[in-house]
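$ ./design --mode recover --in tokens.txt
reading tokens...
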């Protein structure tokens, strides 16, 4: 401690400096996403009210058949922020979806904040985010055992397919 770190050449914007302990966590991609989510404002229309989008009518119970939603519920503490955001994009527009988002998010008592979660739900709806696809969920680290066998492209689709099939019968 206190000695000079003399690796490499001295650059104008990066001179040699004294060594020290890092006492704060080094920002990671998930932390950047976290602060981006927290600091995003919800659009407001000319009357000064928050923009509202009608909820999509569906059978929300059907989404509980999705392995991703089951996993988010069972392993709430292991859900990363990008995975959490993906869950929100799939549930936010559904009738009863925001309540389900809060219910699942609250299972992580260390990170859950009702106000911040509600703000993110409103942002997802107002900005028209598309539901995160099953293939994207795989890239985010979720391993779906039904990929390729399932008839949907995103968890949200489960509520519509089953709803449409029930209407036909």
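writing sequence...
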């Amino acid at each position: 401690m206190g000695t000079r770190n003399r690796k490499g050449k001295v650059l104008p914007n990066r001179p040699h400096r004294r060594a020290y302990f890092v006492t704060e966590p080094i920002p990671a991609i998930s932390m950047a996403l976290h602060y981006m989510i927290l600091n995003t404002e919800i659009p407001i229309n000319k009357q000064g009210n928050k923009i509202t989008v009608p909820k999509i009518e569906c059978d929300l119970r059907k989404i509980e058949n999705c392995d991703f939603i089951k996993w988010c519920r069972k392993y709430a503490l292991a859900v990363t922020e990008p995975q959490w955001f993906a869950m929100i994009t799939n549930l936010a527009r559904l009738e009863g979806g925001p309540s389900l988002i809060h219910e699942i998010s609250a299972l992580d008592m260390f990170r859950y904040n009702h106000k911040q979660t509600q703000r993110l739900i409103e942002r997802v709806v107002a900005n028209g985010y598309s539901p995160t696809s099953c293939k994207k969920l795989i890239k985010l680290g979720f391993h779906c055992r039904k990929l390729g066998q399932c008839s949907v492209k995103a968890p949200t689709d489960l509520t519509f397919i089953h709803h449409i099939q029930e209407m036909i019968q």
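exit 0
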